[in-house]
Amino acid sequence: MGVRKYKISIDPKFSNGEKLGMYAVAYTDDPAIMTKGVAFNSVNKLKFTDELKGRVAAPVLIPGISIPRLDETGYYEVSFSKEVIEKFYEDFMLNKDKSVFNLDHVATEKAPSFILESWITVDPEHDKSFTKYGVKVPEGSLFFVSQFTDLDYFKREIIEKDRAAYSIEGFLGMELKSIKKMQNKFTTATTTSGLSISTDAEAWAEGVEVYTMEGEEKKPVPDGEYTLENGTKITITENKVTSLAETETEVMDKETVEVIQKAIEPIIAKMQADFDAKLAALKVELSNQPAGQKAPEKKEEKPVQLSAVQKVKQLINKSNNK
Fold first, then answer.
1. Alpha-carbon gap, residue 26 to 71, rounded angstroms
2. What is the pLDDT of residue 178?
3. Using CA of residue 95, residue 141, residue 102, residue 132, what is the dihedral sign?
4. What is the pLDDT of residue 279?
5. What is the distance in angstroms between the CA of the first residue and the CA of the last residue of the chain?
6. Where do runs of H (alpha helix) occur along 173-248?
7. Which residue ranges of the chain lie beneath pLDDT 50?
8. SS3 181
9. CB 163 within 8 A of CB 58
10. Residues 179-211: b if buried by 16+ CB within 10 A, e if exposed
11. Sheet holding 233-237, edge to edge
12. Do residues 27 and 101 touch, judged by C-beta distance below 8 A?
């Protein structure tokens, strides 16, 4: 099984009749890319805020990073090239509306702000994004500084709710670039109650962030204790796994078996010694019988292969028949 990897394209043949490009930007606590009304997460959480001036400075698009996406077709990844980012930026600045910002991709929730500065970054070490705002991004990234016109709104909706990051909206063409081997980056499990819980971590462990999918949108997982279908018990608090207990197995390990064997060896040895003593005494008794008296004939029996447990039981029975 492989992971599909797409590169965002401006080629009209990938447009399905729509004009490709970005048309709006959302303030959000989880930076994402919107494609035809559907958000998918980005790894970008870099940002800078100036509470006194009411400003947000952060990258909008970063070239080369793989952005995970999950929809009805399955899991795949997309990325932007420098050339596509520059083209999207030019078209956006030429055709953007006055109100380009909203909250959490809700078009009616207009955010009272405007683009104060915007540019394509150059040298990461000397670009203003780093020297002035302390945000280091690769060359070719699109960087915005936005200015709010309502400071109370800025503090209430952006600072207090940690929405100081950008997430674009637009129509994006996707060209299949490659398919790579799956590396267990996306893990989903179902609870015994039927709830599907996912994590982008490499494996289930304490501390990893989790979520549940509602359509194509990530939703928080209610706090509580859950049992997965494989029997693993997990506790989730504030969308993180706070405890995880895997199902115990009834199969004893090699070390435990060796300990048990050593413990019963003296018991079996004593039982064998007692049996041997009884057998010797019986032979003596038979040898002392009067002459002419025949010992009862024994029918020849084929040897029976006994298990270790059966041998122990046999010795116990013989020991009890003293």
1. 21
2. 46
3. negative
4. 79
5. 68
6. none
7. 1, 33-45, 178-185, 248-252
8. strand
9. no
10. eeeeeeebeebebeeeeebbbbbeebeeebebb
11. 224-227, 233-237, 240-245
12. yes
